[in-house]
Design a protein that fits this description.
The protein has 554 residues and is of the alpha+beta class.
């Protein structure tokens, strides 16, 4: 909290991001078993304390001291290494070492708990961590997703050989993961992949080609897409490979980091270009099904991306609320001024929508992994929905929240500029907005996801205990959003993909937030649900004041 509340420049540094977030505490009570949540309280408080203090300090330092690439040792040995600032390495030790965020979904003995914890635990801790540091969350997500993909599709001998390193909690033995997919001609269009894979007598493969955008390029393992020599053209000729950084004899594998990228944001974490020259790799899963198998890793990363955007919006909103409470202007607190109250609500609505979507999707992921009927189809539409809309919203929310701090918000000593810069990555990485919106439509066409989503939302409405007027408004909005989505899924309807995905996202979150309000007793959550419908779904005259319909309150 601020050292001196009377000081005219409020500073929230030192606040505990968990204990000061009552809505998060209520939601965790709803989405997690009571005994597990009770056990996790010290870890949540610890992460909240670190995020509001030490992690925030380290993130600021790492952002101003990005990694550098060394090609040779001082004695002339041709040995590449990425030099990371000690602040970034300390962040790694917190995320990988103290909390094991990369391993929570894959071990049964994490954080003193016996048994596999639901995905919501990992995402709740990440949600707190990312409020101060976004860059490191990229390697964390890729390590988690690579591990999932290797376990799901890798041959037993491959899994047995490399999985222990990925799941180790020993800092000196831990391995990190990466994804090397993007090429200059093959960004979103994976069929244009030019990297070639050549089979070897020992069942390994040799990869040759360039990868254009590789985050965490010095990771111990990377998943790589390559075209098999003599294989089918197009997407059917693409296979998935595991690329180790170090060979069995301890020597470096045959690929080089050409250079590091100078990025707008996520400056703490290295991203670079890779050139493979006969690099040793191992086939993962079926030959020719590389993109289908990689899609599982990508979808997992897309959900993580949505979580990170939700967390950054929460930080931006919490900072704005704190300033509005502490800052005195024209003889009163900013938060007592009607126009500021309205602007704060415009920040809260998308931030809380994303938070609800995090928990709804995490819960669905758990059900899908358990094999529950219909859960995979629901997951297939919720995941691109949160990736598309939450990441888009984060760009605006972080920018508008910066304005509440005024001139200080534009100064790099504060968190606001870093949040704005980092927020822009979400709608680019793991698929641009167009690509991900089209994936929402693809889920409707291929997985039959829309009726499953409708059924899920009707189930939430049954338990929401709403007044008839508001329930009817939600049902009518969902019907219209569904009709638009069906139209977008028809031949020639792609042009409506973004509009349809946005409509479904807003209706889904409005209904889910109303359900959460009923379950937790949060009047604020119901009010925010109504604001979603009023301001983001229903038609309105831009020259008229938008008033809450009386029927929604009766």
């Amino acid at each position: 909290m601020s050292v001196n509340a009377a000081h005219p420049v409020p500073d929230r540094h030192g606040a505990n991001f968990y204990t000061t977030d009552t809505e998060l505490q209520l939601l965790l009570e709803l989405y997690l078993p009571a005994d597990l949540l009770a056990h996790l309280q010290p870890y949540l408080r610890r992460m909240g304390e670190l995020a509001g203090g030490r992690i925030d300090e380290l993130a600021g330092i790492a952002d101003k001291n990005p990694p550098t690439l060394e090609h040779r040792t001082r004695s002339g040995l041709d040995r590449q290494r990425i030099v990371k600032h000690p602040a970034y390495e300390e962040l790694e030790r917190i995320a990988y070492g103290e909390f094991g965020l990369q391993a929570i979904s894959h071990r049964d003995d994490m954080l003193g708990w016996q048994g596999r914890m639901p995905p919501a635990v990992k995402y709740a801790l990440t949600y707190l961590f990312v409020q101060s540091e976004f860059g490191l969350c990229c390697p964390l997500s890729m390590t988690d997703s690579l591990t999932r993909t290797l376990k799901k599709f890798g041959a037993p001998e491959l899994v047995n050989k490399y999985l222990p390193q990925l799941l180790s909690l020993d800092w000196d033995e831990q391995a990190q993961g990466a994804m090397f997919m993007t090429e200059q001609a093959a960004g979103s269009d994976i069929a244009n992949t030019l990297t070639m894979a050549y089979p070897q007598a020992d069942d390994s493969w040799r990869l040759t080609g360039d990868k254009w955008f590789c985050s965490n390029p010095d990771a111990e393992f990377a998943m790589v897409l390559a075209r098999v020599e003599g294989g089918a053209p197009g997407m059917k000729g693409i296979s998935l490979f595991l690329l180790p950084r170090t060979l069995d004899d301890g020597s470096a594998n045959h690929y080089r980091i050409i250079r590091l990228k100078d990025k707008l944001g996520t400056k703490s974490m290295a991203s670079g270009e890779i050139r493979m020259d006969g690099a040793v790799a191992y086939l993962v899963g079926e030959q020719g099904r590389g993109f289908v198998q990689m899609a599982d890793m990508v979808n997992n990363s897309r959900l993580s991306n949505g979580v990170r955007s939700a967390g950054m919006m929460r930080r931006a909103v919490a900072e704005a609320e704190f300033i509005a409470h502490e800052r005195i202007a024209f003889g009163k607190s900013l938060e007592d001024m009607p126009l500021m109250q309205r602007q704060l609500d415009k920040l809260r609505v998308p931030a809380e929508q994303a938070r609800t979507m995090v928990f709804q999707t995490a819960q669905t992921l758990m059900r899908s992994d358990a094999g529950e009927e219909g859960a995979y189809a629901l997951l297939r539409i919720l995941t691109p929905m949160i990736k598309f809309r939450a990441c888009r919203d984060a760009r605006k929310v972080t920018g508008d929240a910066m304005e509440v701090r005024g001139g200080c918000g534009y100064i790099e000593e504060w968190s606001d500029p870093r949040l704005v810069r980092d927020a822009h990555l979400g709608s680019i990485w793991e698929g641009t907005s167009n690509i991900v919106a089209l994936d929402v439509i693809r889920a409707i066409r291929r997985e039959g996801s829309l009726p499953v989503l409708q059924q899920h939302l009707r189930g939430l409405l049954e338990q929401a205990r709403l007044v008839p007027g508001y329930r009817q408004a939600l049902e009518a909005a969902l019907a219209r959003a569904s009709a638009l989505a069906e139209k977008a899924a028809q031949e020639g309807g792609d042009v409506l993909a973004r509009q349809a995905a946005t409509g479904l996202y807003n209706c889904t979150t409005a209904i889910a937030m109303a359900w959460e309000a009923a379950q937790t007793g949060s009047a604020e959550r119901l009010r925010l649900s109504q604001l979603v419908l009023l301001h983001r779904v229903l038609p309105r005259d831009p020259l008229e004041a938008a008033e809450m319909p009386p029927a929604w309150q009766e």
